[in-house]
Amino acid sequence: MAVFADDILQAAEAAELEIIEAVKSLDRIVDRNQWKVIEAFQRHQVSDFHFAGSTGYAYNDRGREILDLVYADVFGAEAALVRPHFASGTHTISTALFGVLRPGDELLYITGRPYDTLHKVIGEAGDGTGSLADFGIGYRETALNPEGGIDWDAVAGALNEKTKVIGIQRSRGYDWRSSFTVAEIGDMIAKVKSLKPGLIVFVDNCYGEFTEEMEPPQVGADLVAGSLIKNPGGGIAETGGYICGRADLVTLAAYRLTAPGIGGEVGAMLGTTRGLYQGLFMAPHTVGQALKGSIFAASVFARCGFRTKPAWNEPRTDLIQAVAFDGPEHLIAFVQGIQRAAAVDSHVVPEPWDMPGYEHPVIMAAGTFIQGGSLELSADAPIRAPYIGYMQGGLTYSHVKFGVLMALQRMRDSKLL
Ligand SMILES: *Cc1c(COP(=O)(O)O)cnc(C)c1O
Predict the structure, then answer these.
(1) Using CA positions, which residue lies closest to atom 3 of ligand 1?
(2) Which of these, 13, 48, 234, 411, is most buried using a 10 Å CB contact count?
(3) CA gap 186, 189 in Å, rounded
């Protein structure tokens, strides 16, 4: 058994006492979401023959069709498109945006700079890559105000007759800021639609699914996208993504994924179907385990003198836990400790490296069953002041706890704690 210093174990024990109530309120969310998922399965009479998968064109794959209906129900949407053919979250989001935007239209992101991988999807005019800009689709964004909220004056100024889609990112991703709750997203949607009726509101839901009792379509989002390599895949789906929302818009996205006129009516599921169903079934529970781990981590790291965001007792709407360390040595020990606790690739010691597209060296811990699976415990950090480490996921709470203890012990062994 791993040996942890007594005071580290005591900090963990104190943290677990401190978070009892917070964990209890999490249990309520897990229950509600679990029941919601089971009831959707029941309503559509999911049976084991639905898991058979399909080959070739895969017309009338009943398992695929029912999976779309189950997702639509769970997310409170008119329709859904759930496919292993989405290669990543970025691909899913790109498909949704290309599906509904046309040359001359404008996309306006009101939650500040979107997630890094979307910058090339938006692109620059004439960049030759086939980006939105390359197809004559305009883009604007408004920065968040100093309090981290929407800058409504800027939004009102940026809206014009070309604006067709409003972009909202639920998770703040890897910024030292708060994420937006579903209730806050609902307020944004009401406000933006009062400024210009007829807008399509798109929500990047990555990392947010099942962290609250409601999802963005239930507060008026027209189109929502996310990755099955994250929350709704439950750690079991081997690849894929989903789009859900208004039926006409989901159809347009499906035309983009396959071909106009064909849409979601083809697409062999091969052997993936059962994993997509079972992953969705597991997702509320697994997201709950990851969230419980994040709350524990926030409490323990705070006890050891580090700043955490969100704090253990702040509301959460995504999986990401940020911890601010004193310097690069702490940060590196943190990430290496998380890797050391993995069931897969624990013998690998991560080192900072110059990843393409990043200005500073980045260090990552990812010992996962699904490559890059970020509902599994993982951590990453750019090596630059203010030395913030990000951790997310964990298929089981015990694993997250193990990772946090390993990280602290590693700091202790290097005389950093
Ligand atoms: C992960 C993520 C994406 C992109 O998903 P990939 O699977 O990495 O392509 C987009 N937006 C947010 C908020 C994310 O967390």
Answers:
(1) 89
(2) 234
(3) 5
Euclidean distance between CA atoms 103 and 218, whole angstroms: 30
What are φ and ψ of residue 225, in 5° steps?
Answer: -140, 150
Residue among 86, 227, 228, 375 whose CB has most ligand 1 atoms within 8 A, to mutate: 227
Q: Are residues 127 and 261 in the same domain?
A: yes
Domain boundary pick from 257, 280, 303: 280
- Residue 195: both structure tokens together: 């400024």
Q: Are 350 and 368 in contact (CB under 8 A)?
A: no
Going by C-alpha positions, the residue among 347, 349, 321, 345 that lies closest to residue 335 is: 349
Instruction: Report in angstroms the alpha-carbon separations of 129 from 125, 192, 303.
Output: 10, 31, 48
Q: Relative to the CA of 88, which ligand 1 atom is closest?
A: 7
Question: Averaged over 390-409, what is the pLDDT?
Answer: 97
Is residue 169 pLDDT above 70, yes or no? yes
Contact assessment for residue 407 and residue 377, using Cβ atoms and an 8 Å cutoff: no
| Measured distance CA(205)–CA(121) in Å, rounded | 17
CATH code of residue 59? 3.40.640.10
- pLDDT (0 to 100) of residue 178: 84
Q: Which domain holds residue 305?
A: 6-33+285-413
Q: Name the 3-class secondary structure at 221.
A: coil
pLDDT bucket at 185, cuts 50 / 70 / 90: very high
| Å from CA of 3 to ligand 1 middle | 36
CA 3 – CA 31 distance, rounded (Å): 35
Q: Residues lining ligand 1, CB < 6 A?
A: 88-90, 115, 117, 169, 171, 173, 204, 206-207, 227, 229
How many helices and strands (H and E) does the chain possess? 11, 12
Domain boundary among 280, 308, 331: 280
Number of domains in the chain: 2
Judged by DSSP in three states, 340 sits in helix
Q: How far apart are CA 58 and CA 291, in angstroms?
A: 37
Strand partners, 244: 80, 224
Q: pLDDT digit string (tens) for 212-234?
A: 999 999 999 999 999 999 999 99
Residue 357, pLDDT > 90, answer no
Average pLDDT, the chain: 96
